[in-house]
Design a protein that fits this description.
- The protein is α/β, with parallel strands linked by helices.
- The chain folds into 2 domains: 259 residues, 3-Layer(aba) Sandwich (Aminopeptidase), CATH 3.40.630; 108 residues, Alpha-Beta Plaits.
- It has 12 helices and 12 strands.
- The strands form 3 sheets. It has a 6-stranded mixed beta sheet with strand order 1-2-4-3-5-11.
């Protein structure tokens, strides 16, 4: 990065210009965040959110390609022609039941804000900017599919920001598998002829008990959790089909590959005990651990400190993201930006309410500015 007086002056001038452009667009960014928040759409169904986000990027003069990578709700918006290619990722999928309780409305609007601060400056800083609309982070691995299908080819660095109860320059990230277990049994009258039934719900119960007992013997950093999505149709019918969805998490993909077979054997135990047929389905590509690029992190930190966003929690809260898979191939940023969510954390209804609060709006602007400033530093440092 340039250390000359003229270089410093140029950097400060460009950063001031980018911040002014972002803040001038604040009302539109807040409106986008609220529109997405009030219209929660699940993974791969984010038709309105994707359209609204892409449309706003188009209004900035970016060239927008929708439906990329055979994903109807994915897009890539491009501007500039510089040799350094930077991508900013927008997420916009919601959670079942609790809507935008992970604040993806803020993420999408922050990506647009960063673009607003950068598009007028791209020729001067020598950057090609790609804003990527990435569906299905909450389950489905949109970024992984887009990466496998070439959307990230030629990108030198990628970034995004994420709201949380605290600030942190990076997210503590676990690898995760998303699986469905389905048991096929045989229905019968639960009172009149129970001996003719094969109880699929019992099979799932055996599996859950087995997983619960296994937890004593897995690393403290690992997690296994799930829900029953189908447990039967009526109390007087022996359940013919039972299904559950489970997340298996571990510190790395390597550890995950060792844990998964042990979890699968717990599901097999349920089938063996009851005589049901078991089908295990992978619901998404595995999400990986996050590989931090220290040089990129240092550039971000210098800007985050100016915005008061560089502190980290005393106790990290491990989560998972498909942005981690991007980080294994491309230097990537995934900082957390604090919003005033009170006692509530991500994936709680109280956090969803906080995701359209004044503190969330401030995080939206700070995230936009931090990503714009980081991109300016990367461009000038070529």
């Amino acid at each position: 990065m340039s250390t000359t007086r003229s270089g410093i002056d140029s950097s400060e001038r460009l950063k001031e210009a980018s911040q002014e452009s972002i803040e001038a667009m604040a009302s539109g960014l807040f409106a986008l965040s609220r529109d997405i928040h009030s219209n929660p759409e699940l993974s791969f169904e984010e038709y309105q959110a994707s359209e609204w986000t892409a449309s706003m990027l188009g209004s900035l003069g970016m060239d927008v390609e929708t439906g990329v990578c055979d994903l109807p709700t994915a897009f890539v918006a491009t501007a500039g022609s510089g040799p350094l290619v930077i991508s900013v990722c927008a997420e916009y999928d919601a959670l079942p039941g609790v809507g935008h309780a992970c604040g993806h409305n803020v993420i999408a609007a922050s990506a647009v804000g960063a673009a607003a601060g950068l598009v007028p400056l791209l020729d001067e800083i020598g950057v090609t900017l790609k804003v990527m609309g990435t569906p299905a982070e909450e389950g489905g691995g949109g970024k992984i599919l887009m990466m496998e299908r070439g959307a990230f080819d030629g990108v030198h660095a990628s970034m995004m920001v994420h709201p949380a109860p605290h600030n942190s320059p990076q997210m503590e990230c676990l690898a995760v598998s998303h699986i469905q277990a389905r048991y096929q049994g045989r229905a019968s009258h639960a009172s009149g002829a129970p001996e003719l039934g094969i109880n699929a719900a019992d099979a799932l119960t055996v599996a859950q008990v087995s997983i619960g007992l296994l937890r004593q013997h897995i690393p403290l950093s690992s997690r296994v959790h799930g829900i029953i999505t189908k447990g039967g149709d009526a109390a007087n019918i022996v359940p013919e089909v039972a299904e559950g969805e489970f997340f298996v998490r571990a510190k790395t993909l390597a550890e995950l590959s060792k844990l998964n077979p042990r979890i699968h054997r717990c599901f097999e135990a349920g089938a063996l005990a009851t005589g049901c047929e078991l089908t295990i389905t992978e619901l998404s590509p595995d999400y990986s651990e996050f590989r931090t690029d220290q040089q990129l992190l240092d550039v971000y930190l210098s800007n985050a400190k100016r915005l008061g966003r560089a502190d980290s929690p005393a106790t990290p809260t491990p989560m998972s993201t498909d942005m981690a898979n991007v980080s294994l191939s491309i230097p990537s940023l995934h900082p957390l930006l604090a919003i005033d969510s009170g006692p509530y954390v991500n994936h709680q209804a109280g956090f969803a309410k906080a995701a359209i609060s004044p503190s969330a709006d401030r995080a939206l602007l700070d995230g936009s500015i931090a990503m714009a400033w980081t991109t300016i530093d990367l461009g000038l440092g070529q």
